[in-house]
From TrEMBL, chains A, B:
Keywords: Lyase. PANTHER family: PTERIN-4-ALPHA-CARBINOLAMINE DEHYDRATASE (PTHR12599). It is an enzyme of class 4 (lyase). It comes from Bradyrhizobium lablabi. This is Putative pterin-4-alpha-carbinolamine dehydratase.
Length: 101, 101
């Protein structure tokens, strides 16, 4: 099983993850991405969904037109793990290719 | 511009829309779809996204693993319009093909 990161490890990882922060009230990390339109927002989601499915590690996310709010945590571990950090990093990479950094 | 439905027209439309109901606190309709897994949930979203984009009328939706919570309303009209009813009906059709009725 993948291990829950300590608060220190989580903060160190977040420091290198542009746009992500800890969520209030639960052990998770979050970022809201804002694209140009629905086409780009859903394009981002489609690419991120393939990454998530391949990793068998899935986001909680909400889409309203051009925005995508993402929350990541690892249910089985009760907190944030390297799986969340890896998925966050992959999402940033996809967003960057769409011009969102 | 597309017209906001009256409360009566909204309720009449909802009566024929399996699984949909009015949301509390705002003029909108909502349904939570539960699929077998992420693959089916995101498959549903992908097909619904194409319909939404074609109609230029988009949902608010949240996906957590195998569930998709959808809220529909027409911002410009300040309430529910035929666009929402049509999109809800299309979503039900897609879900039905995935075995969710």
């Amino acid at each position: 099983m993948v291990e829950r990161l300590s608060a220190e490890a989580r903060q160190a990882a977040l420091a290198e993850l542009s746009g992500w922060s800890e969520t209030a009230g639960r052990e998770a990390i979050a970022r809201t991405f804002t694209f140009r339109d629905f086409n780009e927002a859903f394009g981002f989601m489609s690419r991120a969904a393939l990454v998530a499915e391949k990793k068998d590690h899935h986001p909680e996310w909400k889409n309203v037109y051009k925005t995508v709010e993402v929350v990541l945590s690892t249910h089985d571990a009760g907190g944030v793990t390297r799986l969340d950090i890896e998925l966050a990093r992959a999402m940033n990479g996809i967003a960057r290719q769409l011009g969102v950094s």
